[in-house]
Design goal:
Elements lengths: L7 E2 L12 H13 L18 E6 L4 H17 L5 E7 L8 E3 L3 E4 L2 E3 L3 H7 L5 E2 L14 H7 L5 E6 L4 H15 L4 E6 L4 E3 L1 H17 L2 H10 L7 H10 L5 E10 L9 E11 L20
Parallel strand pairs: 1-5, 2-9, 3-8, 3-9, 4-7
Antiparallel strand pairs: 2-12, 4-8, 5-6, 10-12, 11-12
Length: 301
Amino acid sequence: MTAVPGPVRRPAVAGQFYPADGGELARTVERCFLDPRGPGQLPARRRAGSRAVRAIVAPHAGYVYSGAIAAHAYAAVAADGPPSTVLVLGVNHTGRGAPAALSAEDWETPLGRVPVDRDLVRALDHPPIARDEVAHAREHSIEVQLPFLQYVLPAPRVVALGVSMGPIGFLADVAAVVTRALQGRDVLVVASTDFSHYVPAGEAERKDARALREVERRRPEALYDVVLRDDISMCGIAPTTVMLLATQDEPLRARILRWGHSGEAEPMEQVVGYASAVLERTDVAAAPPAPADGSSPGEVR
């Protein structure tokens, strides 16, 4: 018998943050890769191979503003072997629902339906994490990552976990559940965050550099502290901290791929900062970017 699809989380911000038409959305994602602020070429999607990329940091604003920056992280994912599952750690901008809200539903975008990994959902369903679809109903921070995942991966499965800002002890408790759930599983972790909000570009660059330094050093407590101490309006401090805590004992190297801001897309006095970063296993060689024509990779520029 054919399995009957379960409940699905419908797009909430299609037509706002990205196009609502599937064809136009695919072309928009491609433009993000080709943009001068992006990687500059379309990624060739690998269908097999060793897995070096453990986690990425990617922004979640409208594609016209942050899509080219996000494309750097997703180019690294495309060049890697495809993971079995993607865990997307998002923000709770709305304040609705549980502080650590797990979705057990498939998600849908204009590019199609993305199935949920129900085994990983069960592994994550432990306090302080709770199943809660209300928290995800109008939230965009996870949704905007999915079209990129659909573009670069052959058949992605996802689990969506929204994490609200809270004390470092709460985030450590969430991360402990995530760490246990990831054991023995081939999971790519995506931390969805923008950085400084509505400040002059120079201030955004200075402040965001302090936060990104701690991401690069893989120091979650130091990241949390500097964001609070220096009043850095990084909306995804909670999911990023959880990602760093959950992977801190793994042999990984963090690299900042690109920082930018909304004022690069159109003139504005007050900008929002964005960054892409990748955490790669040091015991597995990262795959060189494959050329867009799908042939064997040659010299890496």
